[in-house]
Specification:
Elements lengths: L4 E12 L2 E12 L3 E5 L6 H9 L6 E6 L9 H4 L2 E4 L11 H9 L8 H8 L14 H12 L6 E5 L7 H16 L3 E5 L3 H7 L2 E6 L2 E6 L1 H5 L5 E6 L15 E2 L4 E6 L2 H15 L4 E7 L2 H17 L1
Helix pairs in contact: 4-5, 5-6
């Protein structure tokens, strides 16, 4: 097993009766890295993370988390990790600082209270009752509690589910603060833009195994084609003569997919100027992480629906 990695997994397997949820998963996450594990429901993502957290025991394979086997349920490992679940129960009548202080008391060397509050962005709510917090602030408190023991590794499960756009961006800033402090973060999310903005690397799990891995930029480069789209007025489709792959969505909007758009745009704009028409709503877009994710998981989604 690698002594360099915060998490190393080799050949991980876990079955529930006849259903093999995880089948030979390999994974390695470096210290100080933000790693996003993505996958559709039923792909084995939750089971894999629960094994890493020590909440489930594997059937086969090797697992090392900060040099420990989580199946041993050692206190020495629990003191070094923090877990943020989708829901956390906190006494609603405690003040924010009191709630964090309560959890700090469980550790021999807790992280300083003021540092935790600043990291999660709750300075202004320090003396506010938990029950008075907004949804986004409550989520920040969940992370604060997970930071009480000054963990080296933090598991973040769907940290921004149900957030409005402003709260999501604030949560992203919080994760960036965690990265800058040197913590390793394993993030699960269904928001591709979240993974794209926050993760150093992304792993996509399908049918219990990693099917693609790399930085968001590396994964997006798998679909190198650029999409050029625009709208033409009725009766001017002849502008596209010779572009055999031009597709009309039925409303007068066309799409073309090319490796490099410069020559195409030069030709199209010249034809449009000659015809005296506008390429309305012209867009040039590269593939997003969501596009790549949907390519990788489309088969699994179809099987699940069936």
């Amino acid at each position: 097993m690698s002594g360099e990695a915060a998490i190393t997994v080799r050949g991980l397997r876990k079955a529930y009766g006849a259903i093999e949820a995880v089948r030979g998963l390999d994974l390695e996450i470096a210290h100080g890295e933000v790693y996003a594990l993505l996958g559709p429901n039923g792909a084995g993502k939750t089971t894999s993370v629960e094994i890493l957290e020590g909440h489930r025991d594997p059937d086969a394979g090797e697992v090392s988390v900060l040099g420990h086997d989580p199946a041993r349920h050692e206190a020495a490992l629990r003191e070094r990790i923090g877990i943020v679940l989708q829901t956390t129960g906190v006494e609603p009548y405690l003040k924010v600082a009191e709630a964090i202080e309560q959890y700090r008391g469980y550790y021999a060397q807790p992280r300083p209270l003021d540092e935790i509050i600043e990291t999660v962005g709750l300075t202004g709510q320090r003396d506010q009752r938990v029950r008075r917090l907004s949804g986004g602030q409550q989520r920040r408190l969940d992370v604060a509690i997970a930071l009480a023991g000054d963990p080296e590794l933090l598991f973040l499960d769907e940290p921004t589910t149900g957030f409005d756009p402003a709260a999501r961006r604030q949560a992203w800033d919080m994760v960036r603060n965690l990265r800058s402090s040197g913590a390793t973060v394993l993030l699960t999310t269904h928001y591709m833009d979240e993974a794209e903005h926050l993760a150093d690397r992304v792993g996509v799990i399908v049918d219990g195994a990693i099917v693609a891995e790399g930085s968001p930029a590396e994964l997006m480069a798998r679909r190198a084609a650029v999409t050029v789209s625009f709208r033409l007025p009725p009766g001017h489709a002849a502008i596209l003569d010779g572009f055999e792959d031009a597709r009309d969505d039925g409303s007068g909007r066309y799409e073309l997919h090319v490796e490099s758009p410069t020559e195409l745009l030069h030709e199209l704009s010249g034809r449009a100027l000659a015809a005296g028409v506008e390429l309305a709503e012209l867009r040039v877009e590269r593939a997003t992480l969501e596009d790549v994710y949907l390519d990788l998981t489309s088969g699994a989604a179809g099987e699940q629906a069936a």
